[in-house]
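go over whats below:
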Amino acid sequence: MANVQDKDKPRWYVMRAYKNESTAEERLSHKTYGLKHFIPKQKVLRTINGEKTLCMVPVIHSLVFVYASQRQIVDFKHNYYYNLQFVTWKTEDELVYLTVPEKEMKNFIEVCKQTEQEVHFYKIDEINKGKDKIDIAKGKRVRVHGGPFDQVEGYFIKIGRKRGKQLVVIIPDLLAVSAEVAPEYIQVID
């Protein structure tokens, strides 16, 4: 989270498209007026016209990350797509825009884009519940050297009922993504 003092500095803002990510993605991707953005997606099996098809769908409905200044986003909203809303957090005396540091967002995007790998997404409030319990407190902060996740940083842990080791990249208070990484690529940095 960050309180935005400089409205002209680009940041990764967490935004909502209210279950209309496809329209938001279409408008944000426009060649002329679009903005840099990222929507975490996963492969799911859907039945379309009686045929089973693998489709890419958003991991969390309505969730969109937009990289731009606050002024650029407000201008975009007023001129091209008003349904895109900032995710905010209210403190005692002010409204805080939820943002993600660039380094963490870069790591998160790298892991998410490896769609050929077995990738699992977790909402932060679900991490310590259920069969896929993750104990982050015991995890070691690591950096990957080589392979599809080269230079990605995260936590190297074991997930319940999984034999392999997992690299987990976390956006604090929001989302975590994990993928299996070969141990020979791992360097402990903590």
